[in-house]
Amino acid sequence: MVYETGSFNAAITAATGEDFALREQLLSSYGDSVAQQIDLLSRARCDGNWNVAARRLESLGASFHCGRLVKLAEQAIDGAPGDPVILRDLRRYAAEFSS
Q1: CA quadruple 61, 97, 91, 37: dihedral positive or negative?
Q2: What is the distance of C-alpha 80 from the center of its chain?
Q3: Is residue 5's pLDDT more than 80?
């Protein structure tokens, strides 16, 4: 599936305008959602659970116009449950986002 990706920051700005408290809340919720799905991926022991978590990450990235997350999620969808490279890359993304 191909998604049109734009600027993550532009999407956040469009959603929050100049309401900085709302911006922080939205960014925090996004980060929490990413972390939760990565945790589910790391605990997935079957293709079904892995695929569900990876597709949720893909949808989250697409919703926020974050091409990087969409690409990482697509790699997970194409990968095998527990793939350490995919999990490492996703954890790196989450760490970079939260800093």
Answers
A1: negative
A2: 18
A3: no
